[in-house]
Here is the input.
Amino acid sequence: MQRRNMVIMNKTRLEAFSDGVLAIIITIMILEIKMPHNADWSSLMELHSVFICYVLSFAFIGIYWGNHHHLVHTVKVVSPSVIWANMHLLFWLSLIPLATNWMGENHFARNTVIAYAVLLLLCGLSYTLLQTTIEKSNVLSPELKDAFAAVKRKGIVSVICYSSSIPLAFVHTAISGCLFAAVAIMWIIPERNIAKALKE
Amino acid sequence: MQRRNMVIMNKTRLEAFSDGVLAIIITIMILEIKMPHNADWSSLMELHSVFICYVLSFAFIGIYWGNHHHLVHTVKVVSPSVIWANMHLLFWLSLIPLATNWMGENHFARNTVIAYAVLLLLCGLSYTLLQTTIEKSNVLSPELKDAFAAVKRKGIVSVICYSSSIPLAFVHTAISGCLFAAVAIMWIIPERNIAKALKE
Amino acid sequence: MQRRNMVIMNKTRLEAFSDGVLAIIITIMILEIKMPHNADWSSLMELHSVFICYVLSFAFIGIYWGNHHHLVHTVKVVSPSVIWANMHLLFWLSLIPLATNWMGENHFARNTVIAYAVLLLLCGLSYTLLQTTIEKSNVLSPELKDAFAAVKRKGIVSVICYSSSIPLAFVHTAISGCLFAAVAIMWIIPERNIAKALKE
Amino acid sequence: MQRRNMVIMNKTRLEAFSDGVLAIIITIMILEIKMPHNADWSSLMELHSVFICYVLSFAFIGIYWGNHHHLVHTVKVVSPSVIWANMHLLFWLSLIPLATNWMGENHFARNTVIAYAVLLLLCGLSYTLLQTTIEKSNVLSPELKDAFAAVKRKGIVSVICYSSSIPLAFVHTAISGCLFAAVAIMWIIPERNIAKALKE
Here is the structure.
């Protein structure tokens, strides 16, 4: 019972810390948005690309939170490698407010879109790395194994989309934008498989 | 038991994440308040409209937290749609510091009051949407159904108040301000019905 | 059991939200400290009064957290009035970073010390109000009643100290500073009585 | 049971508050990073030393979180002295974003590296102080005692490394940087001993 208790504690704090970091990341992005100093609608409208970037990044962090939540829920053993793979993911996610701000302030200039794509790619790879680390240190039921395989397939598709959005930004940055949105939509309902596997 | 355990976990993290985001939203608003660089009372007094806006928004976020707390407390099943309706509400609430700052710095200029009213309207609609989503994915007791209906009525009154505060801002922005305050007061003691229904 | 469960939930979220807000207040104060743009020790030394203010406010928030923790621990019933008394306390505490920043940047100018004293006074009164609200909505054991009375006595002494630090700032601001420090020291070990009462 | 319950509560809130503060410290560091106002790669590249400092400090806070997590996990009795030793550690850790920012903006100028080393030294000493305080107020199993002794040895080595990095910064700041990295690597897998002792 000592052993079991310890593992539960570990997991709770891992979740609590991750929730805290994700909640802060998602919220401090608005601190980067500088409101105009006058009350004109036209000044407010100039923020439109900053706002679109905020919506996109809010959605991405929200999606990561939802998926992270289901992934960590499957963890029984929190090994040091799981803690560090999680910290590694949080590190790349913590840079999203910066990339969002850079892209928004420069109205989707090509370089900023490429930087955003590279960051999303690194986040995607870190997520898959975390999943692999969890798989290695936990014994999974056959149902969970299937669910994990399905999630990993989605992870690979995401990485391909992000990777191709980098050269495609040289054609038109809107293509990259569509690819970002496509990946987001693919992950929006992510939990079905893991949730089902846990229930059975 | 596996199933029940999972649902409780879900809810705990949904609450933890929402609490985190709301706590940050309510607190970072003060980061937008720039203190004067000298020690004169008159410089401090110039912040009076910024301060009034801060009080108003603090009250609104506090009220949302209180009501959210009671609403989510009734949840038994956290479906993906509940997670996304919740995320949607948090998105609009996260913009409150910006609208607060804009309204305060421009001393309740008409445009800024309208923007604030529109944002409150969107928050109000998101809250009702979250409630509807929870109702659909959970089986409610007759008492809870009554409580939910009462809350929904308050939601509709709020939406009407916010909507009418937009055209009324063209008459005088103080009328809109009074309507905001009236809605806040209406929600300050929100929990009685749900709390009673849960106890019975 | 439904009833009991509900009350526990309430309290957990009240604590979680308060912890979140207090953790953010205590941490964002450093965002107000602007590091010099060069690497000279002399530029760093110019921050000494900002730093002293940070230490003072960190200690105050830490003390409030410790005492709040023990106070809320005694709560069995979280009534709406407890929620609002708590929110009221958090409101005044949330202004501490602003007052700290103003006092630090203006090197303890008299007006800023008075503003800080007024804010501490309002925080102190809010704390006593929260305690009174908890006393009213909960049935306390005789031991807890004694402990509460001791805490209330400390609260009254604090209010007197803060109140007198306002006129005394006109004599010399250092007197006010000493009074702030004296109150802080008085509260640093606050929990003995309540902790003992709960154990018995 | 009352007694046991109280102690568990205490610990939970101590962990929650520490998690909150650490999550905020680790995340607000990015608010100090100012993105360039144009979309040139060369402008972005100018941030390289700011970025390196961010990585270093992220790693340090992450390591403190991981080790703090295991240390507090061993606590059974949360005495006021444990609360204050913990608050003292959080105080020094809260200054890391400032020192990081100073060092990054001044491209590892000697003074800034020395300031960073002094701060890490103070954090290291606070951590050892927290450990000693926990040892004094808790009865430890022989396995835990061994684990604590091993951790304390690591603490002493860290303090020696940090201390020597201060004079060595006068030779070359890169030597100090290597010492910082060496200590970080030494602590990255910190938990084995305590984890093992708790399981047995």
